[in-house]
Structures are given as structure tokens and as C-alpha cells.
Amino acid sequence: MSVFRSDLDLDARDATGTGAEADVALNLATGNTRLSIFWTQDIQLSADDADQVAEALQRAAAESRSLLKGNKEAQATEDSSGPPAA
């Protein structure tokens, strides 16, 4: 199982017909966002596909912040409860 979760709403392909695709994925372990371009080193996007990529990156950034905030809150709760009672 991959630690990355791709944005399934994103369907951005090279505007010149090369078959290259863009992918935005969130690393569920670290909260980092991965932007991948498959099948080539670069990609030319139409305006609509560029908007899709930008929106996917914004969704991943928001989810990353939420994930990291939740992890910090959980850690603070654990730290404030102190050691287990004997």
C-alpha cells in the first residue's frame, strides 16, 4: 500500500498530445505534497488543466495543514496527560 494518495479529481494531460499526465498526491505520513509528471520531463497544460493542477495543489495543501494540525493536537494531548498512573 502506498503512503501517497493521489487527487482523483485531477485529470490533466499534455496539451500537445504526448500522453504526459500531471499527478498531485498527498504523503499521508509526512503531509508533504508530491507533484509528478508522468511519461516525460515537462508538460504543456491548457488553461483549464492548469487550473485543475492549481486546485489539486490547493486541496492537498489544505489537507496537509489539517493532517499536521491534527497530529500536533494529538501529541499535545498525549504530552499533557503525563505518565500513566501506577
Structural overview:
Helix content is 40%, strand content 21%. The protein is built from one helix and four strands; from the N terminus they run E-E-E-E-H. Strands 1, 2, 3 and 4 form a four-stranded antiparallel beta sheet that branches. A hairpin with a 5-residue loop joins strand 3 (21-27) and strand 4 (33-38). 10% of the residues are buried. The model has no long low-confidence stretch (mean pLDDT 90).
**Distance, first to last CA:** 39 Å
Tell me the number of helical segments per DSSP (H or I, 4 or more residues long).
1
Shape: elongated
Instruction: Provide the succession of SSEs.
Output: EEEEH
Summarize the biggest pleated sheet. Answer: 4 strands, antiparallel
Number of DSSP E strands: 4
Structural class: alpha+beta
Mean pLDDT: 90
Helix content: 25-40%
Low-confidence region ranges: none
Rg, Å, rounded: 18 Å
Q: How much beta, percentage-wise?
A: 15-25%
Short description:
By secondary structure, the chain is an alpha+beta fold. The protein has one helix at residues 47-80; strands at 4-6, 12-13, 21-27, 33-38. Strand 3 (21-27) and strand 4 (33-38) form a beta hairpin.
Which descriptors apply to this entry?
4-stranded antiparallel beta sheet; 86 residues; alpha+beta; 4 strands
Helix and strand topology:
Elements: E1 4-6, E2 12-13, E3 21-27, E4 33-38, H1 47-80
Antiparallel strand pairs: 1-3, 2-3, 3-4
